[in-house]
Write the structure tokens for this entry.
Amino acid sequence: MTAAAPAPLRLDPADQAWMKDPATRAVMDALEAARPGASRYVGGCIRNALLGKPVADVDIATRLLPEQVIEAARAAGLKPVPTGLRHGTISIISDGRPFEVTTLRRDVETDGRRALVAFTQDWNEDARRRDFRLNALYADRNGTIFDPTGGLADLDPCRFVFVGSAENRIREDYLRTLRLFRFEAWYGAGAPDREGVEAAARLKQGLHALSAERVWSELKKLLAAPDPGPAIAVMAEHGILSEILGVNGNLRILGGIINQDISAGLEPDPLLRFAALVGGGPERIRIMAAKLKMSNAESQRLQGAVDPSLCGEVEAAFTDMAAAERAIMSLGARAFEDQVRLSAAGDVAPPPRDWTLLAKFAREWQQPDFPVSGGDLILLGYEPGPMLGDAMDALKAHWIAERFEPTREELIARLKH
């Protein structure tokens, strides 16, 4: 008697909030009405559901052509947006949220950055063009899992294995090197796939073919993982980090910041972690910011975190709250907190005062209003211009040094003398 084949793995829609969400069901209903059985959930939503992780984005793969997806959405009263029409992707807006619906496809030509695709009706062809086996999982609306590439074998322990040849997948899109380490940082358990890491190391120069914006976006996502330290360490060991940044990074200080986040229950801060990783002063940060095309706000935040002008005051703040106030007034609360955390993370011995107390002090500190205005100086005979500005700066520095205690009258009297 032949043994019965094992039942296919299945996600129970009743247990998956994202599957029973009315917005999701409305999209799938529209696609099913156009062609029953032609559409499946795919990628990260299936991966995260199987790993017990939150599902943020729901992507759908379909045998419907893009024009048919648009027609199906409109027929159901939903809004289609051709966000990636050339590559077969239509975003369907349901309950104000986008659901990416992409026609099954295969790569015709790739150049390491973008691909020319052709549409197909073959689920296996669509799976073979994806990056990792865990991202090539599909599920129908009833939750039955389809695994064309063997991704289920990568669930326990969780690791990210390229579909087919790791080298071929990376040559198709060099961003997959960074995606490998980003996924490992977020979900991986144990050592990453050796073949994938070795291929990434051999092809690391291909990262220069990517736009700076794409690289910076992936780095931020990687650094936002709860503990990206092990993944970053592998990147450093294989020269991938230095290929991107020009430096191999300070893993000790990065580890200190990560430990602070974990011990204090803080949300990961990718910018502060980046400052810890790259080290150096404002000039290095300016070079990094230009190289990665950071926003002005990001660049300014990072430069404040490494501004050396008040290093002494920041160090003194661990024993002297007056120094803390002076540093906050000069640097700003955000930069002061960043510098306190970086200083504590770099100390071999515990600092004299717990960094969490100084960070809390910075967040709660209310800056007093400087009691003297430019108009006061003009009444004293100063002409608007550089001399007035210099006088104001000197007066303010004195006021900060005296812990904001001098009154308006005392400051003006000092200026008169």
Summary: The chain has a mean pLDDT of 91. The domain at 1-156 is CATH 3.30.460.10 (Beta Polymerase; domain 2). The longest strand covers residues 97-103.
